[in-house]
Amino acid sequence: FPLQIPELAKGTVLMRERSKVEETIQAMQRAGAGSLQVISDFDMTLTRFAHNGMRVPTTHNILDNRLLINEDCTRRIRELLNTYYPIEIDASRTAEEKQPLMVEWWTKVHELLIQQKIRKDMLARAVKESSAMLREGYKVFFDRLAEHQVPLLIFSAGIGDILEEVIRQNHVFHPNLHIISNYMDFDRTGVLQAFKGQLIHTFNKREGALLHAAHLRELQGRPNVLLLGDSLGDLTMADGVSQPQNILTIGFLNDQVEERKESYVNSFDIVLVKDETMDVPNAVLSYIT
Ligand code: TMP
Ligand code: MG
């Protein structure tokens, strides 16, 4: 590989247009770390999809702990997951068709959670007791970006309070971090009463990007974007970047690989098939910075 990035030659790496990827990385390298920002999804992008054959929980699923919710609530949230997750990843439906169904899923789950009177002071323990896990190589990823003062915007349809706690417990909550997510709203006694702001689900990240990104001053004047996601909906996370110059998108294809391979290769610049590591993003970053 001419770019001296041997990780891109791995069998798990798919690229529609290798030469375009090379040119983009080279342009980003010439512009340097001062022109770069990283925008990443959280669940199943920064966290692992599976470990030792077991699914790793998303931020919503981390709440499945008796400290926070009862058995009946667990059962209902699981039923909703079984109904809506196959729709979320269905290659035969468009994002437009999925939109209203995702709103339905998130709204129902958030209503169930609010009924449980979840206590803020129990969240850290629930995260500790969960099997949440960031991808292998996460520390190099977070630390390098902080070291080079490259802003990292995490844009998640998960739960902000939970993902912050996962990042904190892994000791990588650095000052270059910005988060857009669904945050819990607690009453004065520390009990969950609502979710703040406009709901973010997998297929409305464009609206969230346009709404929030303009307010994040640290992201301005950084026209080069490395975008990481695991859903086609994640591709719109950079829509709030004003006057972008080079955007390199990396997609983790974790599930339904054969059904979705074609659409992922047509949509992301680099597709990583069943890769539980940050090796490729880390190699690209080490070349650029
Ligand atoms: P992300 O934007 O950080 O990837 O978070 C959204 C993911 O959360 C999405 O892939 C679906 C998943 N999810 C659950 O696992 N359980 C739920 O109850 C809900 C509403 C979403
Ligand atoms: Mg995700």
Automatic annotation (TrEMBL):
GO terms for biological process: nucleotide metabolic process. SUPFAM superfamilies: HAD-like. GO terms for cellular component: cytoplasm. InterPro entries: HAD-like_sf (IPR036412), HAD_sf (IPR023214), Pyrimidine_nucleotidase_eu (IPR006434). Gene3D superfamilies: HAD superfamily/HAD-like, Pyrimidine 5'-nucleotidase (UMPH-1), N-terminal domain. Keywords: Cytoplasm, Hydrolase, Magnesium, Metal-binding, Nucleotide metabolism, Nucleotide-binding. It is an enzyme of class 3 (hydrolase). The keyword Nucleotide-binding applies. It catalyses: CMP + H2O = cytidine + phosphate; a ribonucleoside 5'-phosphate + H2O = a ribonucleoside + phosphate; N(7)-methyl-GMP + H2O = N(7)-methylguanosine + phosphate. GO terms for molecular function: 5'-nucleotidase activity; magnesium ion binding; nucleotide binding. Monomer. This is 5'-nucleotidase. The lineage of its organism: Eukaryota, Metazoa, Chordata, Craniata, Vertebrata. The gene is NT5C3B.
